[in-house]
Amino acid sequence: MAISLKCTHTVKPNQPTPNVQLMLPECDQVKTWTHPTTVYFYQPLLNDDTTVQSPIETLKCSLSYLLVHYYPFAGRLNWISGGRFVINCNEMGAEVTEAESDATIQDFGDFRPTAELAQLAPKVDYTKDISDVPLLLVQLTKLKCGGLCMGVALSHIIADGIGAVQFFSSLAKIARGEKIEILPYHDRSVIYNGDPLAKPRFDHIEFKAPPSLIGQKDNEKEEHTKETMLNMLKLTKQQVLKLKNHANEGKTKDGSRDYSRFEAIAGHIWRCACMARNHDYNQLTVFRTPMDFRNRLQPPLPPGYYGNAISITTPMAKSGDLISSGLSYAAGKIRESIDMASNVDYIKSYMDFLRSQPDITPFRSGFHKVIGGTRRGVYYGNPNLAITSWMGLNLYDADFGWGKPIYMGPAALSADDDKSFIVPADDGSLIIPLRLQVAYMDDFEKFFYQDI
């Protein structure tokens, strides 16, 4: 596949915006400042539709307008003490690139996040000083078939998934000539900032090294170099219902609410990974997943809050118990962890723990730049697993006048972690991009589908 980058534009707010420093709470600081990438695919435009403006001009004009409201997206990060950041709201702008490709939509098959798909997302130059790196980059690629792909790179430190979807939904509304329904809320001090002298009241295992394989001295060194591969699994609505029913058939706590779709699916993935890896019965394993706490704080955060209002849940169990005790047990372990992490006192303790760290760098997730080089976050491969769920996000609301996207999902998955996403499809099914070590993928897929 050949990609031709035609032109790159710096898009700034079309009106003056506040020239301020935006202070970031600990739940922002702990996120990677690098840019997760996503792609939106659109069917070819009708040639006789004269009402559709040039897509690149639509994107630039709409973005210039929206950045007046989301002015931090046009700013830049700056280091402060303790490995932390502030956002300088300085109107330096977002970056929009116009591109063409000789590929068609069909060439990308099931849209698995391969190296080819990653070419449709913007490239970020991390050799620059951080104060020169845009927080938002967009690449609009016209495909040979006439279809479009909008690739997005957005610094994770400025917004979580809910905030990012809110931003692009608003951007699409502007492009369609509609009003923004929810204006962004910028004051991040409404999240609990804690007492500088407060100590965490819980044992936060989410910030500790996860379990290693029994018998290995350096799990990361031995495991993360092993070859991994991608798979795109799909669950129909009927299969999701089967998994949910299966999880709830074994529920032992009378009167408790039914396990959710996420708890059932995540528990199923966790169990299948343990079976495929053929762990020792007593092998400890952790399942890592982010949890939104917008509505769990008292009072809840404002609807337009777009920062990282997420904490990490890390249920732990023995692989043998997960396999032998059935799906209900796995879903229950996930439920217990979510319930604990949902407690307001736990959320406050989570941020107190981070505030108490003189340098937050060792706790920051993902790949990130440090003085003298780069480092990555904690390795969550075998015997552990990391899953990010986009269930509940309205991913298909980004209609810029070109029609709704036919697919939205991650453009890349790290090659050395065992990681998965749960992505809703437009037809109500779920797509699960999964990276796993090559040695275990065939068995994983067999276990994943054998009972549903």
Notable characteristics:
452 residues, alpha+beta, Chloramphenicol Acetyltransferase, seven-stranded mixed beta sheet, 18 strands, globular
Query: What are the secondary-structure elements, in order, as H or E?
Result: EEHEHEEEHEEHHEHHEEEHHHEEEEEEH
Report the total helices: 11
Query: Unreliable segments (pLDDT under 50, ≥5 consecutive)?
Result: 368-373
Shape: globular
Arithmetic mean of pLDDT: 92
Just name the CATH architecture of the largest domain: 2-Layer Sandwich
CATH class of the largest domain: Alpha Beta
The CATH homologous superfamily of the largest domain is termed Chloramphenicol acetyltransferase-like domain
Strand content: 15-25%
Structural class: alpha+beta
Multimer state: single chain
Instruction: Provide the helix percentage.
Output: 25-40%
How widely separated are the two ends? Answer: 37 Å
Number of strands: 18
CATH topology of the largest domain: Chloramphenicol Acetyltransferase
Taken together, the total number of domains comes to 2
What does the model show?
The chain has two domains: 3-176, Chloramphenicol Acetyltransferase (2-Layer Sandwich), CATH 3.30.559.10; 213-450, Chloramphenicol Acetyltransferase. Mean pLDDT is 92; it is low at 368-373. Strand 17 and strand 18 form a beta hairpin. Helix 6 (237-249) packs across helix 9. It has helices spanning 26-29, 55-69, 115-118, 161-175, 219-223, 237-249, 261-277, 319-324, 327-342, 344-355, 438-449; strands at residues 3-11, 21-23, 37-42, 76-79, 85-88, 94-101, 136-142, 148-154, 228-235, 284-292, 310-313, 316-318, 368-370, 373-375, 385-389, 407-410, 419-424, 430-437. It is 26% helix and 22% strand. The chain is globular and about 60 Å long. It has 452 residues and is an alpha+beta fold. The protein contains eleven helices and 18 strands. Strands 9, 10, 11, 12, 15, 17 and 18 form a seven-stranded mixed beta sheet that branches. The chain has a six-stranded mixed beta sheet with strand order 1-6-7-8-3-16, with helices on one face. It comes from Aquilegia coerulea (Rocky mountain columbine). This is Spermidine hydroxycinnamoyl transferase. Belongs to the plant acyltransferase family.
